[in-house]
Amino acid sequence: MFFLKDLPTQRMLQRYAAEHPEMDVDKVAAALTMMRRASVLIRALDAYFAAFDLSLLRFLILIVIDREAADARLTIGDIGRRIDVSKPVMTRTLKRLADGGLIDIAPDGADKRSKVVTLTAAGQDRLARTLPGYFKMISGDMATAM
Amino acid sequence: MFFLKDLPTQRMLQRYAAEHPEMDVDKVAAALTMMRRASVLIRALDAYFAAFDLSLLRFLILIVIDREAADARLTIGDIGRRIDVSKPVMTRTLKRLADGGLIDIAPDGADKRSKVVTLTAAGQDRLARTLPGYFKMISGDMATAM
DNA sequence: GCTCCTTTCTTATCATGATAACCATATCGC
DNA sequence: GCGATATGGTTATCATGATAAGAAAGGAGC
């Protein structure tokens, strides 16, 4: 993700508004600001995760598995359904997490098409070490806006 | 961009907060909501732009050139500096816009390293046809939050 | 119990972001 | 004015998102 470094000034938006009556200057300005904020925050998060050999997606996968009840048996599809990402990306990313020893992918006994994904001890540890900085970063970002 | 479809519930955040005192539940919840909103909005925008054979980046480039003073001579680097995107991506994307006839890329007389980028009539037209729906979409999104 | 449709996951391929390393040209210091 | 450094742009390569299409298994209708 990326976005304009210098958002349009109020004056520029008003110039556009004169030509585009369907436009609400305040709402447009708010949306642009939000997208810029999200863009900057997500970049910062990804840089932070990289230090743990994670990405935003790999982190989200760990957290989705972790927050499930202890006896839950999440399949690859279950995880994909909880995150807004396509199936092939899930396949590839889970393989990478498994290669890194952070998750286990095992066949599901009941349905031979499915595979059950669980966190390894290393995965739980990696997540635990990542969380404090993560919460700190997003709290800190919001602190400038609230 | 992508993000959790189901954001953590207040209850789950409080469970994490108990283990992570540095975490401010309200701020974390606000940041997660913002990223989710931005993610959804950007997807919708990209889908909208695709109908005009544009992407968010290609659109931003057109708007950055357009909003400059009529006699401004933006170079490739100038545009890159206004948008949060790397130089090679600018090179590739500008080439694509030029191939599509939406911009002109001409050598700069003064500095032989630089190239000056301008909108063609087709580029201005494409931008003009894209803007109303764009403003409508982001106004509409914000309307649900303001 | 076949046939057909659905579901789960994978493979192949493309689009588009990033960095590293490279020319060509400008500019700075002396 | 010449060597060193900085700047503008490109090429090569990788990371990671998407869609399309297929294999394997499950399930529904008859």
TrEMBL record, chains A, B:
Highest taxon in the source lineage: Bacteria
Pfam families tied to this protein: MarR_2
Domain HTH marR-type, chain residue ranges per copy: 25-146
InterPro entries reported for this sequence: HTH_MarR-typ, MarR/SlyA-like
Coiled-coil ranges per UniProt: none
The protein's name in its UniProt record: MarR family transcriptional regulator
